[in-house]
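Appendix B, example 12.
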Amino acid sequence: VQLVESGGGLVQPGGSLRLSCAASGFVFSAYSLYWVRQAPGKRLEWVSGINYRGSTTNYADSVKGRFTIARDNAKNTLYLQMNSLIPEDTAVYYCATDPTGQSRGQGTQVTVSS
């Protein structure tokens, strides 16, 4: 399993970012997938999940209404559209094949700061 995240960066509060996760080494279209994050000094936190077809999505209360998870099974890619970002969203974001994040990529840093 290989998961490679990209799209992170520095953004001002209220701004947007779109994260991508390129996957390989497994049958992408057969798996539910997840985004998790880890803020400095904090535990890994589940952010969002999507089922194998993309027909069902779930979000942590802290991001509901601001973040949107999506997938393109033809491109083996998972996405996370993040809008209305706040400083508390600052973290390393990982895509994962399990909701606890045990099998995750190397991560992409998102920093929300003015």
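The mean pLDDT is 97. The CA atoms of residues 12 and 114 lie 5 Å apart.
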